[in-house]
Amino acid sequence: MGKRIDGRKDDEIREIKITRNYISHTEGSVFIEMGNTRIVCTATVEDKIPKFLAGKGSGWITAEYDMIPGSAPRRIIRPQTVGRISGRTHEIQRLIGRSLRSIADLAKIGERTIWIDCDVIEADGGTRTASITGSFIALFDCMHSLVDKKIISEMPIESFLAAVSIGIVDGNILVDLCFEEDSKAQVDMNVVMNSKNELIEVQSTAEITPFRREDFDRMMEKATAAIAEIIDIQKKTLNKSL
Model confidence over 185-239: pLDDT tens digits? Predict the structure, then answer.
């Protein structure tokens, strides 16, 4: 096990900083920093639901994700300028929404939508996984606010939720890749799990060369340990356990 670009061990996650109540206009908001990846996550309540849920007594959680123009070394063009969002953006916001819905009882939300917005202000790898980790805190605070205000009767969230990136770089399995590591990874993986040690989503790709089942199993083992560590940080941040 050697040292990495930023001095971490192969199975070491980047330092995580979480600032709650970062935006005053929303029911839940978080500024999350994972190394040099920095994202603002907000949770906003809207008293309406998608048409396909009409009359079903269920709420909805959905997400939007974007990177501000100066978040990467080369300026990112705003979606409204080009007239559409990119396929990557669409994929990531669907992942965030799916992940959050998996740990909530939507019937307890009532007929309302929780909008999760993730705005990347600095990208250094792992933006989608950091967005999920931060959005969970924003969603938790949002739901807690609705319970306190007696808008809903009980907490809809059933477990904690976190995600981490992992990959094979120069033959080594590295946890929580920064951009430089991710850009040259032979294998790239994103893992989403809850605090019940259950998998929610695994995205795994051979970027350069195929990889063996043994490599996959080793990556999953290291990702599981890293996510447990991240969830522990979430619990300490919220001072709660589900």
Answer: 999 999 999 999 999 999 999 988 899 999 999 999 999 999 999 999 999 999 9
Class of CATH domain 16-238: alpha beta
Query: For the chain, how many residues are written?
Result: 242
Domain ranges of the chain: 16-238
Which own/partner pairs from 1-10 qualify as long-range (CB within 8 Å, at least 24 positions apart)?
Answer: 2/172, 4/174, 4/181, 5/178, 5/180, 5/181, 6/35, 6/178, 8/176, 10/172, 10/173, 10/174, 10/175
The overall pTM is greater than 0.85: yes
In eight-state DSSP terms, residue 242 is: -
Pairing between strand 60-67 and 113-122? Answer: parallel
**Rounded distance between C-alpha atoms, residue 119 and residue 210, angstroms:** 33
DSSP states of 95-135: HHHHHHHTTB-GGGG-S-EEEEEEEEEE-SS-HHHHHHHHH
